[in-house]
Amino acid sequence: MMNSGFDAWLAGFCERAKAAGIDADVIQDFRSRAAPIREVIERADSQPEFTLSAAAYVGRLVTEERVAAGKSATALQRATLSKSPVEAEIITAIWGVESDFGRKRGEFPTLNTLASLAWYDRRAEFWESELFAALRIIQSGAVDADRLVGSWAGAMGHTQFLPSTFLSDAAGADLWSDDPVDALLSTARFLNRRGWKTRLPWGSEAILPKDFDYRLSGHWQQRSAEFWNSIGLALPHAEDFSAWQQCSLYLPTGHRGPAFLITANFRVLLHYNRSPAYALAVGLLADRLRGGEAPISWPQPEPVLSPTEIRELQRYLVRLGYDTGGVDGIAGAATLRSIQLAQADLGGIPDGFPDRSLLLHLSR
Which pLDDT score, from 0 to 100, does residue 1 have? Predict the structure, then answer.
């Protein structure tokens, strides 16, 4: 049943690849080896950025072992990282989060990984575009199909570039080498091209003023540093953040947990991975690599809503007239903003956190 459905998709895709300008011999070689990967399909709805609590996700990635390994990796690659327009610790942190400093780059055949996702996943159009990009990489001669391997989600190399990102920011680089130099410099180029500002922190844990209006929170909302100063928001060591310009307040576990004042550089990290928890993990790991402490106090974790439950919550919100940006099982900015508005309308604390109590309330 799986293969018959996949075969029908494959035939249509090959026609679309031909129309997109992919060479016939590249298409034929791909078609001869194309097959769905069951493990990829099973993982499609269980990305840790979206299925773990922020506390659990950050705790998994920012460990004492990874901090120690990251400091060693930074020292070892100092000559390469000195050429980067982005701070060395940020690049090393991405390297650590993405592949544990090259130790876990993935061994899934990228073409079949992307084919599985393009056939099965709800974001089929996105995955097809990445599959087109992967075929163009092969067509360019940059790498043979047999060497095109990576993660279960189609990302490749030490810093896990998707094929489209390779074409835009790493063409000519060897992301598949054991030597990480090309991958590290390509990552720096990616961030720099998307507006990374040197000497601007990604953010910091913040101390909220008494009687804080939680409607001001949300990583999608930007206000001036002057505004945050004016309402009494502070940083733990009374640091001056007046030069941070436009900032947002991110509450990864809602009003019960820590708050983070985040900058434009945090938003650049979201270009690398759209999960705020991912950007937070990179920022916190980079801070630790610079010698910072680990002061974060996380609350007792609440069960994270599953993608199915998020879809159910989105459906309820849409019926009530809120714009969730779609019913896709992903709590993106539009959905979180809708949750925040609904919480305010219901007389709750409008922190935008998708907890089970709201889902139960709306389902009555």
Answer: 44
Query: Pairing between strand 246-250 and 259-262?
Result: antiparallel
* Residue whose tokens read 């090393």: 92
Which residue in 106, 130, 85 sits closest to 43, CA to CA? Answer: 106
**Do residues 26 and 139 touch, judged by C-beta distance below 8 A?**
yes
What φ, ψ does residue 151 adopt, rounded to 5°? -80, 175
pLDDT, tens digit, for every residue of 241-271?
999 999 999 999 999 999 999 999 999 999 9
Please report, as a single letter, which amino acid is at residue 33: R
In the chain, which residues have pLDDT < 50?
1
pLDDT of residue 330: 87
Instruction: Let me know the angle formed at the C-alpha of 82 by 202 and 156, rounded to the nearest 5 degrees.
Output: 70
Task: Write down the residue that tokens 């001669």 correspond to.
Answer: 141
Matching residue, tokens 């310009």 = 245
